[in-house]
Specification:
There is one protein chain. The protein is of the alpha/beta class. 26% of the residues lie in helices and 22% in strands. It is built from 10 helices and 16 strands. An 8-stranded mixed sheet has the order 6-7-8-3-9-10-13-12, sandwiched between helices. A 4-stranded antiparallel sheet has the order 2-1-4-5, covered by helices on one side. It has a two-stranded antiparallel ribbon with strand order 11-16. A hairpin with a 2-residue loop joins strand 4 and strand 5 (90-91). Helix 6 (172-184) packs parallel to helix 7. The longest helix is centred in the middle third of the chain and has 18 residues, at 202-219. It is globular and about 70 Å long.
């Protein structure tokens, strides 16, 4: 018998997604043995994590790090190169992406897209957009369908008189509400939010985030929240994962990761958050120290499996970083980092784990 209390809602193990680059050798070239190996772009490499029931997990990282590809794997829009995805203890990673839309698991994983305007069919009214997943996945009689759509609209704060309008007749916030109502229509267990407030005004962002938090409490859903806005992630998420060039470099409780980041890349991300106290003083120096990183990211095409992906940009990189890929290791309660020299915050000085000397990575920005 399945233990629903101890089984995570989503369990992703060793996920890989590699895309071939260039033309695949033809049949005769392969038969003659003259075809060389096809270069592959490693978009997602050995990613493992879980999402518990009722939990909000944040996923952050710079553009091109693999966040969108990971989301497409979880929603079964892409086939895995390797790995396992279990939903409530049942394997779904082996199901072909092309046929997953008709699977019984489809209603349980839904998504809110980054740009609500682009994700809505311009020929559908708001009513038709919200009703579409119900018609496809959970058919209802006409009157019951109408009542359900109106219930969802009210739940998401969308006035009923707007249900007959088309997307171009709605504001950005109203389109966002339609997208959220559409996503929760089939009562998913897991809602994946791909930067749901990125295209909205700041005042509207706050309202939509409050709506998402309220819906989570009312409906008992779990969230995977993908965002570049680290302040939002800190406020909304229980845990956070930091992704860099296809790999998870740090994960842990959101408050701990934000207060005590152990990976240099995480520190660089967090130091880029604007703060009022970063206003320069009379001497021209900033009051908040920042971590400077330079150089270009390593190529994701057939990367050396022994070299740390952050090597070359990391201010504390050594020869050891080119000889063995760092794996996630615990540095605190529920807090793991993939670094040979994790930065341990002692509460007085920040020191590297391999030395007792204060860390020199953080410099004042002149």
């Amino acid at each position: 018998m399945k233990d629903i209390f101890n089984t995570p809602l989503l369990d992703a193990q060793s996920l890989h997604k590699h895309f071939p680059i260039g033309k695949t050798p033809g049949l005769f070239a392969r038969a003659r043995g003259s075809a060389g190996p096809v270069p592959r772009l490693h978009a997602v490499d050995d990613v493992t994590f879980t999402i518990a029931r009722g939990e909000t997990l944040g996923l952050v990282g710079e553009s091109g790090c693999g966040k969108s590809t990971l989301v497409r794997l979880l929603t079964r829009l892409l086939d895995l190169t390797d790995g396992s995805i279990q939903l409530d203890g049942e394997e779904i990673g082996h199901l072909p992406a092309k046929g997953f839309g008709k699977s019984l698991y489809r209603p349980r994983i839904q998504m809110v897209f980054q740009d609500a305007g682009d994700s809505l069919n311009p020929r559908f009214t708001a009513f038709a957009a919200i009703a579409d997943p119900l018609r496809r996945l959970k058919p209802l009689p006409r009157e019951a369908l109408k009542a359900r759509v109106e219930e969802l609209a009210a739940m998401c704060g969308l006035p009923l008189e707007l249900l007959g309008r088309f997307p171009h007749q709605l504001s950005g916030g109203q389109k966002a509400r339609v997208g959220i109502a559409r996503a929760i229509a089939v009562e998913p267990d897991l809602l994946i939010l791909d930067e749901p407030t990125a295209a909205l005004d700041v005042s509207v962002q706050v309202v939509i985030l409050q709506l998402l938090d309220d819906l989570k409490q009312r409906l008992g859903m779990s969230y995977l929240f993908v965002s570049h806005d680290l302040n939002v992630v800190r406020l909304l998420c229980d845990r956070v994962m930091v992704m860099y060039l296809g790999r998870i470099v740090e994960t842990g409780p959101a408050e701990r990761v934000f207060r005590h980041p152990a990976h240099p890349y995480t520190r660089a991300l967090l130091s880029a958050i604007p703060h009022f106290d970063q206003i320069k003083g009379s001497d021209g120096a900033a009051s908040v120290p920042r971590l400077r990183i330079s150089g270009e990211p390593r190529s994701p095409i057939d990367p050396d499996p022994k070299v740390c992906r952050f090597h070359g940009r990391c201010p504390q990189g050594t020869e050891a970083c080119t000889q063995a890929m760092p794996l996630l290791q615990g540095v605190g309660p529920g807090h793991s980092v993939a670094c040979h020299f994790p930065i341990i915050d002692t509460g007085i000085d920040t020191v590297r784990a391999d030395t007792d000397e204060p860390d020199s990575l953080i410099e004042d920005v002149a």
